[in-house]
């Protein structure tokens, strides 16, 4: 039996810049045998035969391209629907508190559901998980659109619970195939996939600024079923290069987590990354939602014309710009990534602490773009470094753990921000103070994390 062995890559040049069309991703694909060399039907020294079917290079490349296209289409579809559910005007027959409760339930479930999605993906594959996710989102929102207003608890369950879990499945479905399939130019492909999310958010957020466009949320929720059907069909393209064969020697827990050993949990690397990730996620959600409150503050006298209201879109624009800038990024080891993410988070955190004092629209706009760029860069670089830092076999479980960390960060940020809001004049200041502090601490930890890794690598080299 061929068993994938988890090897932690330490060579930067192997992390992203050495393509192999024949052996990439979670599934093993054999190398072609040159014409002048005989094909070995069995191993030496009497070992049992070990044959591997070798796909043609053109077929492998075609399937890899289909995976890329499928991830882009699925992410575009789920991002359109998610933007509609979060940014859409769903208050036509619901109170502000009820609408906010539904949104928060959706956001929290989307993140906390990622660990469950990762475990399901280990056992069933990302194609099945993607189809299930599309079904949960489509049916959850569609059924919710027919529920009467008096049953707001049922609406919250369907939108925040059922659809939120579906979004969790899809958020993993669009990233894991890229990480497992590609090695060379993997970061560029991640940029392409994540850019679809940014573009859809920009388009839908722009539509919400047009006063003449007022579509009932129930109608939106019904027609999104068409989008989810298309996204579900795109999931069919996510066919792995080769089917994974279960390794019965790993034990129940090993098979559940998709690991051949548990070295992933023995070092400090994963735990330090989780801590940095949690703090970064604490700094992201509250700032995005309180930017509009800052612009509406009457004491700032920003005004209410379109040129001011459009600032709420700029974080998404910054996110897209940050992703596009990564096309030219050339360093791919975890040490190199931390060298960049640490100062970026520190700088963004310090800027966030100054936001409540800003009294010029131009400075708020600049901050919104910078904030969006930092968040986009952080997520893309973190995703890209996972295969090299932890091994490709660990991608699914590590993504699930980081998804849980993101959910924990959101759960901490929201109540903490609400509790601190009573201590400030307008309420929104506490969100920026909390977010800025979390981002600064996250950046400092990233810098310290880098020195820990450098010291570990130095000890390993000296021990050789």
From TrEMBL:
The keyword Cell membrane does not apply. Keywords: Membrane, Transmembrane, Transmembrane helix. Residues 1-12 have a biased composition (Polar residues). Residues 1-51 are annotated as: Disordered. It comes from the Eukaryota. SUPFAM superfamilies: MFS general substrate transporter. The chain crosses the membrane at residues 66-90, 128-148, 154-179, 221-241, 262-286, 306-329, 336-355, 361-381, 401-420, 432-454. InterPro entries: MFS_trans_sf, Proton-linked_MCT. PANTHER family: EG:103B4.3 PROTEIN-RELATED, MONOCARBOXYLATE TRANSPORTER. This is Major facilitator superfamily (MFS) profile domain-containing protein.
């Amino acid at each position: 039996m061929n068993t994938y062995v988890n090897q932690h890559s330490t060579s930067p040049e192997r992390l992203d810049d050495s393509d192999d069309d024949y052996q990439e991703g979670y599934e093993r694909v054999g190398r072609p045998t040159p014409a002048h060399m005989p094909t070995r039907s069995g191993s030496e020294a009497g070992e049992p035969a070990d044959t591997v079917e070798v796909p043609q290079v053109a077929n492998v490349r075609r399937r890899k391209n289909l995976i890329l296209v499928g991830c882009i289409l699925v992410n575009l579809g789920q991002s359109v629907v998610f933007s509609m559910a979060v940014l859409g005007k769903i208050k036509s027959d619901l109170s502000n508190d009820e609408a906010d409760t539904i949104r928060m339930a959706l956001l929290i479930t989307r993140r906390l559901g990622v660990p469950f999605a990762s475990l399901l993906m280990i056992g069933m594959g990302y194609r099945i998980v993607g189809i299930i996710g599309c079904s949960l989102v489509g049916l959850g929102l569609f059924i919710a659109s027919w529920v009467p207003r008096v049953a707001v608890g049922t609406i919250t369950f369907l939108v925040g619970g059922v659809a939120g879990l579906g979004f969790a499945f899809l958020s993993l479905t669009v990233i894991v195939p890229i990480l497992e399939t590609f090695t060379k130019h993997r970061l560029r492909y991640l940029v392409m996939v994540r850019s679809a999310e940014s573009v859809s958010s920009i388009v839908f957020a722009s539509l919400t600024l047009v006063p003449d466009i007022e579509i009932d949320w129930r109608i939106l929720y019904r027609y999104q079923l068409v989008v989810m059907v298309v996204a579900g069909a795109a999931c069919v393209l996510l066919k792995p290069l080769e089917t994974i064969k279960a390794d019965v020697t790993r034990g129940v827990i090993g098979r559940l987590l998709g690991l051949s050993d548990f070295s992933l949990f023995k070092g400090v690397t994963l735990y330090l990354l989780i801590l940095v990730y949690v703090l970064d996620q604490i700094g992201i959600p509250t700032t995005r939602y309180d930017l509009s409150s800052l612009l509406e503050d009457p004491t700032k006298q920003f005004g209410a014309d379109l040129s001011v209201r459009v600032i709420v879109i700029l974080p998404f624009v910054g996110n897209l710009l940050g992703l596009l800038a990564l096309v030219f990024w050339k360093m791919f080891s975890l040490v190199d990534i931390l060298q960049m993410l640490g100062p970026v988070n520190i700088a963004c955190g310090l800027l966030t602490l100054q936001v409540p004092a800003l009294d010029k629209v131009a400075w708020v706009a600049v901050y919104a773009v910078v904030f969006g760029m930092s968040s986009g860069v952080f997520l893309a670089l973190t995703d890209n470094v996972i295969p090299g830092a932890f091994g490709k076999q660990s991608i699914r479980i590590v993504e699930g753990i980081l998804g849980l960390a993101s959910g924990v960060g959101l759960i901490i940020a929201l109540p903490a921000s609400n509790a601190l809001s009573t201590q400030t004049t307008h309420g929104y200041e506490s969100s920026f103070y909390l977010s800025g502090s979390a981002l600064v601490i996250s950046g400092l930890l990233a810098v310290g994390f880098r020195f820990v890794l450098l010291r570990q690598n130095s000890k390993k080299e000296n021990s050789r």
